[in-house]
Every structure is written in structure tokens, then in C-alpha cells.
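Protein chain data
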Amino acid sequence: MDTLALKYGCNPGQGEASVSCASGLPIRVLNGRPGYINLLDALNGWQLVRDLEKATRLAAATSFKHVSPAGAAVALDLDETERRMYMVPSKTVLSPIATAYVRARGADRMSSFGDFIALSDTCDLPCARIIAREVSDGIIAPGYSDEALAVLKAKRKGSYCVLSIDRDWEPPRLETRSVFGITFTQERNTFIPSDKGFRNIVTKRRDLPQWAVRDLTVALVALKYTQSNSVCYASRGQTIGVGAGQQSRIHCTRLAGDKADLWLLRHSPKVLDLPFRDGLSRNDRDNVIEQYLSGRREEDVVADWRRYFTEKPEEMDEDEKRAWIGSMHGISLASDAFFPFRDNIDRAAASGVGFISEPGGSLRDDEVIRAADEHGMTMAFTGVRLFHH
């Protein structure tokens, strides 16, 4: 039995924490000392990026927080607007795995603060340099270049958690967990989306371009490792809004939709051109942008503009925000279980959703399909539920 002692359990008061594996642990600690939640994030995140790379054949990354992804992405080149959104200078050279992480982190930078990173491929120097400037708790990857490992070991005054995992390791078919002294057993969820899983199109609109299949695939793989109920909006090979752990699906759709709206608004010239003071940290900029775009707090940011800006920024009122979001189209949306009411579809339409994937099977499927038809959406029923707890 191979056993690794941990700092503590879910909370500092929960001692005697460890992980073990009868056949030998597939992970190695290269730096730092992981905690219980660190490893939950690491192992869920590793499964996500491994599945995503298998499904898309692209390098993948995820930014995990509290056992759900804040963001997940594959390696599509950044355009100049995205570089500005994610604060990556145009001269910065990005490898595919670095690009995937920039996108995963950029999906929801507020939620990614203090994340645990998972990479599908070897962490190289360009990726390590990106990670070095972010507030993060740790990383898991199948390997590290010598230069990347040196950069990561220097992070957080030498305490940054760096884990390697055996890329070829496969767990047993059955998995177990203990709750209140009782052991649960089930088969592992081995579902990985493929193109043929989206063939059951149930709407009048039937076009489903390959880029939308890619985005729906990213969303479904992210949902597979997101605490349920969960809904995910995706665009350009990355999640842009993840709603996790809500008891009501409409609340989940609203939460994820609000995050997607903020991501869409970050493309706006008014946000891209905010006149930030030199020396304002990346995290402070993220906080200010979030406040600037979030209702009443915008007034406070503009009123106190000298703290953040070199000149008073131009305000963005609610009509402008709605008009900007309304100009966006082709967003993809996936759900880990069926939509029980049409209100989810109506909310999705407000964020530019044009493509939807859900299992189907609701008593009100006809009502949901009718709503999708009214909004001119393409919707596919996968027949696969992806609850994760």
C-alpha cells in the first residue's frame, strides 16, 4: 500500500489526512506539500484535461477551485482582443499548453484566484512563466521541462505545490468512497463526447458546424467534473461560464449566464480601454473590471476613479451592456441533465446561445424544444446524464 500524508483534511482541524493506493500512487510530489482539497482538485482536473485532449486532440488545461472547474480550455491561438482581455502582451510567446491555460484562467479570472491547475501535456517554460504571475495553489501535469520546474519551485517562496502524474495510469473499473462510515461503490464514468453523440438534433434548425461541436465538447467534458446541478456556456474552445452545485437548474443557468455575460462584456472597447494606473496588479484589475461591469458598484468605481485610473473612465450603462451582449451570437451551452422548463432556454438566448446539448428526457421536452425553435437555436439530445458529486 502506497500512502502519502497530507497537510490536513478539508479543514485544518481535520488531521490524520492521507491518500493511498494498493497498486501504487500514480502521483509524485515534486515540490510543496498538498492538502486534501488540493488533491481532489488535482485528480478531478487531471481527468478533465485528459478527457478533453482525447476528445479534441488538442492540448487542454483547466483551472480548478473547490472541486469544480472555474475554467477549461483547449489550445486555440489567441486573437489580439483575447490577449488584451487576458493581459498577455502581443510579444509574449505562447506554446499550445500555455495558450490552453491562459484561456482556462481567462474564462473566469475572479473564480480562478488561488486555483489548482491541471495540464494535459508537459508544462514547458512559456506555460510556467504564465503561471508564475498568477495567484495559484498548485499544478498537476504529466511532466515538466527542467526550466519550467525551476520557475514553479520558486513560486510562493518555494512552497508552490507541484505534482506529476503517470500519463498512462488507469484506475480500476469500480470506484468507492466512504460517507459516514458507509462505503459506496459504482462504475467509473468513462463517457467521452464524440461527434456522433450530437447527431440527435431535435430542433427545426439543424446546422451544427464543427466549431460548435468542439465548443459543446468542451462544455460537456467540463460538466463531467463539475458539482451538479451544472450548466456550462462555451465559446472559442473554452468555457466562458460555469454554474455549479445549484439545486435549481434555472439558478444554475442564470449563474453561468451571468458569468458568460461578464466574459462577453470584457471584449467591449470600453473595458479593453479602461485607463488603469501603472502598477495596479492583475488581480486588482480583475476586481475593478468585475465591479465596473456589475450593476450599482460601477458607480462606486467611477466615483472613486483616481484610485484605479489615470483619468475618469467612460461609464457603460445597462442599455449599452445589453446591446453589446445582444450583438453576440453562436455561443454553445451544455447541461448535465435535462432542462425541465423553457425558462432555461429563454435565459440562454439572452447570452447569445445558438447551440445547445442536453440529455433530453423531461416531461416537458416538447416545450423546451419549442422554446429553442422560437429562438432559432440548434439543440441536440445526447441521452447521457453527467451528474457529478
